[in-house]
Amino acid sequence: MLRVIIADDHPIVRVGQKVVIEANGKCKVVGEADGPDQLLELVAHQPCDVLVTDFAMPGNQQADGYGLLGLLHRQYPQMPVILVTMFANVATLRASFAHGARAIVAKSASARELPQAIKAVCGGQTFVSECLRQQMEEAGTLDQQAVPQLSGKESEVVRMLASGMTVSQIAARVNRSISTISKQKSTAMSRLCISTDVDLFAYARSSGMVP
């Protein structure tokens, strides 16, 4: 019987995950957490074979997103971590694998995919939801470990945008033309395979560029 810990800040999501995970009779949910702090406390005291966690959860002491993934990977390198997320841009997917996730399941995926992901990671494989895999293939990247690299100026522009500044304000601040800032923003989004400002801001937050 595989022991599974699940973490999500929405109780109704955890209820659904528990039902799906235990349906085949091969897995048992041995603990639940509603955020990074509770999750790390739980993992420290409750042995488990697989961890299923949300990407964005509020925490008082511990960061969510990549910070949480990296910490789990360093402290428990042998424990497979399955990320269940609504963040569906390619940059987030690739960076999540690079930070230690072994599988990524979309919250919009069918119920059968979470058990498939558990089976895959316990067999030493990785898993990506079908809808997310299609995005990665369309973006021309099958290398899940590749972390998108921005130039220093591109990172600076993304960070300022995510902090609430406009293109015009950034241009004035760094003494560059508006067209240059716009081009750097577009290039950064292209490198990250991101098409909307909302996804760009979500990437900046999850990668630690802004609080």
From TrEMBL:
Gene3D superfamilies on file: 3.40.50.2300, Winged helix-like DNA-binding domain superfamily/Winged helix DNA-binding domain (1.10.10.10)
SUPFAM superfamilies: C-terminal effector domain of the bipartite response regulators, CheY-like
Domain Response regulatory intervals: 3-122
Domain HTH luxR-type, chain residue ranges per copy: 143-208
4-aspartylphosphate found at: 54
InterPro entries: CheY-like_superfamily (IPR011006), EvgA-like (IPR051015), NreC/VraR/RcsB-like_REC (IPR058245), Sig_transdc_resp-reg_C-effctor (IPR016032), Sig_transdc_resp-reg_receiver (IPR001789), Tscrpt_reg_LuxR_C (IPR000792), WH-like_DNA-bd_sf (IPR036388)
PROSITE patterns tied to this protein: HTH_LUXR_2, RESPONSE_REGULATORY
UniProtKB keywords: DNA-binding, Phosphoprotein
Keyword DNA-binding among UniProt keywords: yes
Name of the molecule in the record: Response regulator transcription factor
Organism in which the protein naturally occurs: Pseudomonas canadensis
Organism phylogeny: Bacteria, Pseudomonadati, Pseudomonadota, Gammaproteobacteria, Pseudomonadales
